[in-house]
Amino acid sequence: VFNHNLETAPRLYRKARPGANYKWSLELLKKFKEQHPDVPTKSGLMMGLGETKEEIIEVLKDLRAHGVTMLTLGQYLAPSRHHLPVERYVPPSEFDELKEVALELG
């Protein structure tokens, strides 16, 4: 398995992933899949940083369009008071809804 986590929605990249580039990350995943079609590709997202459900769905679509076949979604928890605060705790029902969206995307 080749893993590269996008972590969050593009709107939050500057805040949550300074120095990272959303489009570059997607291209990395796509190019790896093109060169190694038999190796599963995976990414992960943290939720609770201020993203909307609609933004997460767009990220799911982007990941699928770039060849990603495995995904983890998790609740963001600030490791210390020096890190970004949790904006909200995502209810299990929302994770369930996003699971269904991801499965529908393939």
TrEMBL record:
Residues 1-106 form the Radical SAM core domain. GO terms for molecular function: 4 iron, 4 sulfur cluster binding; lipoate synthase activity; metal ion binding. Keywords: 4Fe-4S, Iron, Iron-sulfur, Metal-binding, S-adenosyl-L-methionine, Transferase. It is an enzyme of class 2 (transferase). InterPro entries: Aldolase_TIM (IPR013785), Lipoyl_synth (IPR003698), rSAM (IPR007197), rSAM_sf (IPR058240). Its EC number is 2.8.1.8. It comes from Vibrio parahaemolyticus. Its cofactor is [4Fe-4S] cluster. This is Lipoyl synthase. Pfam families: Radical_SAM (PF04055).
